[in-house]
Amino acid sequence: MSYLMAIDAGTGSVRAVVFDTKGNQLGVSQHEWTHLEEDGVPNSMSFDCEKNWPLVCNCIQNAVADAGINAADILALSATSMREGIVVYDKAGKELWAVANVDARADKEVRFLQESFVGMEEEFYALSGQTFALGALPRLMWLKNNRPELYEKAANVSMIGDWILAKLSGVIATDPSNGGTTGIFSLQKRDWVSAMAQRVGLKDDIFPKVLEVGMLMGNVTKEAATAAGLSSNTKVVMGGGDVQLGSAGLGVVEAGQVAVLGGSFWQQVVNISSQTRTPKDMSIRVNPHVVDGLSQAEGITFFSGLIMRWFRDAFCELEKLEAQKRGIDVYTVLEEKASEIPAGSYEILPIFSDSMKYAKWYHAAPSFLNLSLDASKCNRASMFRSLQENAAIVSSINLDRIKEFSGIEIDEIVFAGGASKGFLWPQILADVTGYRVKIPKVSEATALGGAMAAGVGCGVYLDMVNAAKELVVWDKTYEPNAKNKKVYDEIKIKWCKAYEAQLKLVDDNITTSMWKAPGL
């Protein structure tokens, strides 16, 4: 038998997953890791390469053991990671400095760029689909300003998934889907635009070669084979960004296809041609996809899954006890009760994540509006349902914006992640958007996308599109309820007006924003 491995470096943990060539998951191992704030550096989130590499190696070894296979039978492996996180190397390939994805230390540099180079952010966004807030330019500028001795040694920069592949193969490179999130990149050419760095006084010779997802990088080095328990015959293949590879793992690999990824944050992604012009208002993020010739327009809804966890832990002790007695998940109990609440949740309006405003993005203070003193209507079940409806409504607004600038027509959504596992939330998403919702059978879409890349690199699959068509299997389909959609269309309008009013309270320093982008 022959096998494939994917290594997934997420924000909160790293996983190694073993698949057979039919896409069946055979073994997995996961380690949590922590990204600490540097002393004296507010809003920083450092990535400790020295500490985290042994965790990666341990995951690889344990995943092989869990699968019960011989490591020598792994044909190829690839890696994916949280996007935006970067690693800076010296000329010998040794890590100098690294940060995780939501590191926000460079707020002063973001403001400096916006104020000193008026119009540049808009110009760079038109090329890259990214704003400065989480891009690499402000972070590299921070390094130059605050750690000049490290900056002077900088000879290469890559993403965190690329770092794993570099440790395994000895080759530093990146792919468009991950490297594109630096913002120093062209959507159309799928390559670095080093002149961006030069124009703001940064080094323009530190950007490594760009390989398309599925391209062979080499074999596992002897040193890495010893450290990770692998064979030096195993091939190392270029991977990509977690959302983009996750999309491939869901079968979303052709122009016009749409996915909503319902995790801690929700992403709404729509495949568009890489030649599509970015929106003039910079409201939506655009990233290169893992399929050559495609980009992905991406809306993001902050904290949707985390809000549910907060609501569960803050208010739902009785439901937890009931779930424990019945031997089921507490969210199943909550969905059962919420399903008895009519569409619209008695007009309760949750105020949490705003719809995406990528150019200048901040949120109102968390709150519920339109609560009443009628306990038969205003209770845990109705508030829980209102949160589910709100995540779907904000997703719908983001999809509407993508349709406006891209010209894409949508009739179907692939829904995945933890939110798709229930029976109520997928139906609400269908009712709110008016689109058919399909649920794939895969539970590890991002890792499966990584395994697809590995398989392409060693010739198991022709390319990412063919791999997706061969491996993705569908589980359930939900058709929209037209009557409920009319209810949600009215709520969407009210919610937008309410959110605008709530943002004014933040502007007037009456309430505190749930989150603000660096530089605001």
What does this structure look like?
This protein has a domain of 242 residues: ATPase, nucleotide binding domain (Nucleotidyltransferase, domain 5), CATH 3.30.420.40. A hairpin with a 5-residue loop joins strand 5 and strand 6. It has 520 residues and is an alpha/beta fold. The protein contains 18 helices and 23 strands. The strands form 6 sheets. Strands 1, 2, 3, 4, 12, 13 and 14 form a 7-stranded mixed sheet that branches. It has a 7-stranded mixed sheet with strand order 17-18-16-15-21-22-23, sandwiched between helices. A 3-stranded antiparallel sheet has the order 6-5-7.
CATH topology of one domain: Nucleotidyltransferase, domain 5
Termini distance? 54 Å
Second-tier CATH architecture of one domain: 2-Layer Sandwich
Structural class: alpha/beta
- Bin the helical content: 25-40%
| Content of β-strand | 15-25%
The DSSP helix count reads 18
Short description:
By secondary structure, the protein is α/β, with parallel strands linked by helices. It has a domain at 3-244: ATPase, nucleotide binding domain (Nucleotidyltransferase, domain 5), CATH 3.30.420.40.
